[in-house]
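FIELD: query
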Amino acid sequence: MPQRSDIAPETLRVSLEPEGVEVEYLDDRSVFYHGVPEKREGSVVCGPGKDVHVLVTSPDEREGVMVYVNDRNTHDEILESTGVGRVLLDGGEETSLFPGVEAENHGYRIEVTADPEAARGRVFVFAEDEMGEAAYEIVGSEADQREVSNGASGERERPASGEGDGEPSEGTDEGGE
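FIELD: result
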């Protein structure tokens, strides 16, 4: 297998739609993550074998940066041409993806922890494999959310919870739903 490396992300266009989240790459292609992201407080643990994509939006939710965590399949040149970043983590290793957003490799599971206030935008985690995809939005505690909803920025009140696109999400978090 060819050697893969960490790649810094570029700013990409983002569109938050009622049906899901669209990200437009620098090469004018786009990807659509289906389903309304399920809200998770503080962190998401993705199951073994999942492709983990982390998107942090700008405060106006029109742009964002995306990083693939532990993607060993996509060639460096492809990521560089799309503007998507990559971080590779060894077992037990942890790193900061963006201010307020951390990723940790727990062996076969990737945990993404975020403080949306520190990230200064919305934080989404997409976990997918050949069986389906799951979408999550990491939110602050309920107290933090009440504080934000009482502030001047009503933007964060957009719906961001739901069942996704009906795909099973077992093994995607520690709670074991």
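FIELD: remark
Confidence is low (pLDDT under 50) at residues 146-177.
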